[in-house]
TrEMBL record:
Pfam (any one): Thymidylate_kin
Pathway: Pyrimidine metabolism; dTTP biosynthesis
Protein name (record): Thymidylate kinase
Main EC class the enzyme belongs to: transferase
Lineage of producing organism: Eukaryota, Metazoa, Spiralia, Lophotrochozoa, Mollusca
One biological process term in Gene Ontology: nucleotide biosynthetic process
Keyword tags: ATP-binding, Kinase, Nucleotide biosynthesis, Nucleotide-binding, Transferase
Ranges of residues in domain Thymidylate kinase-like: 14-190
Top-level taxon: Eukaryota
Gene Ontology molecular-function annotations: ATP binding; dTMP kinase activity
NCBIfam families, sorted: DTMP_kinase (TIGR00041)
EC number, UniProt record: 2.7.4.9
Originating species: Sinanodonta woodiana (Chinese pond mussel)
Recorded family membership: Belongs to the thymidylate kinase family.
Length: 212
């Protein structure tokens, strides 16, 4: 980077169906990057710690019912409220590892209601665009054998299969699909190598806007 300007961090998004190991892999990635002195932080969506996130949490836990369009917009608002912080961190050189993003927003809403894909994308247009979207792919059969499947709203095989087919419609040049049906160590090794190369190549690229 030039004098006076810091190389920016990379925006790395992990997507995938329920129980694919996404959250575990986000944690392992953070640990390895920090050990290698690469500044990094985790984010997850929904971010359940904000006021909007608490409403979403209650909805997911079935403590509250909400109108479907309204919930979709709340998920999007929950990303937008994080954008100032994300931009600051990225521009200060911190890489962000993000557990779910706008792709989940679209894939889940379309899956549950047959909503129009383009309608679903609209509220997230203009969010910071990821440098890479890693989709951890695991068959629904394999996911269902893993512990913890089925606790929250959306955690059923039928919906998960639809989510997978919606992800396929959202793939663009920033997507990498990785087979997640392997040990967590092997998956981590593969992901870490990918992320380090993305971090290197993002350094001198400007941040751009999603779906614009
Ligand atoms: N989800 C997540 C959505 O429906 N829309 C969104 O925009 C996001 C980010 O919320 F079933 C769904 C996906 C999942 C649930 O996610 C909670 P976690 O990763 O299981 O906490």
């Amino acid at each position: 980077a030039k004098m006076g300007s810091i190389a920016r961090g990379a925006l790395i998004v992990l997507e995938g169906g329920d129980r694919c190991g996404k959250t575990t892999q986000c944690g392992l990635l953070l640990k390895s990057l920090v050990e290698e002195q690469i500044q990094a932080q985790l984010l997850e969506f929904p971010d359940r710690t904000t006021k909007i996130g608490k409403i979403i949490h209650d909805y997911l836990q079935r403590k509250e019912d909400l109108e479907d369009h309204a919930v979709h917009l709340l998920f999007s608002a929950n990303r937008w409220e994080a954008v100032p912080k994300m931009q600051d961190l990225l521009l200060q050189g911190t890489t962000l590892i993000v557990d779910r993003y706008a792709y989940s927003g679209v894939a889940f809403t379309v899956a549950k209601l047959d909503f129009d894909l383009e309608w679903c994308k609209q509220p997230d247009i203009g969010l910071p665009k990821p440098d890479v979207v890693v989709q951890l792919q695991l068959s629904t059969e394999a996911a269902m054998k893993r512990d913890g499947f089925g606790r929250e709203r959306y955690e059923n095989a039928d919906l998960q299969a639809k989510v997978a087919s919606n992800y396929a419609k959202l793939r663009d040049s920033t997507w990498k699909v990785i087979d997640a049906d392997k040990s967590k160590e092997d998956l981590h090794t593969e992901l870490l190598a990918l992320c380090k190369s993305v971090i290197e190549s993002a350094k001198n690229k400007p941040l751009s806007a999603l779906w614009k």
